[in-house]
Design a protein that fits this description.
By secondary structure, the protein is mainly alpha-helical. Among the domains are: 59 residues, no CATH class; 25 residues. It has six helices and no strands. Helix 4 crosses helix 5. The longest helix has 20 residues.
Amino acid sequence: MNDILGQPAREALGLTTRRCTATSKGTGERCGRAPILGGFLCQHHGGAAPQVRQAAKERLLMLVEPALEVLYRATRNAPPCPVCGRSDADRDPTAVKAAGMILDRTGFHPTLTVQQQPVEAPAYLAWLPADRLAQIGEWITEAKVAMVRGEPLPDELVPDKYADAVLVEPHNEPEPSA
């Protein structure tokens, strides 16, 4: 039935398993709405408050590492346990599904993709001749290779701590007469 009905319909029919923990002042009955993800209260009873949302988010994020551990154990091949005989082939489908749901609700969606956006070259490069632009490209490539190798900077590129200093020639002023 949960696959057919959406969350609002399940709430209207009272078919939700998780319920808001707030109670009515008038009737004393418990609220029938579903709480926010990771929380204990529905939107109406304080689930929309920033501090409640933050606590719910932190509660969900605490589950990420154990969920990743479940998925790691499910994907590795290890010999059967000498005590109980259970092997990784006996994966618990409920635990794997729960781990997937936790990761999905904390932002690690299975359909998440990374998109690359092209970066446009600065307009001033149009004034550079093609041969010089190619030379600059070669220099950049050489610099990247040198940096990866850990080569020191060339001496002429090492910043000089006395670059702002100015040499002053001594003056031969006559000494004051007494």
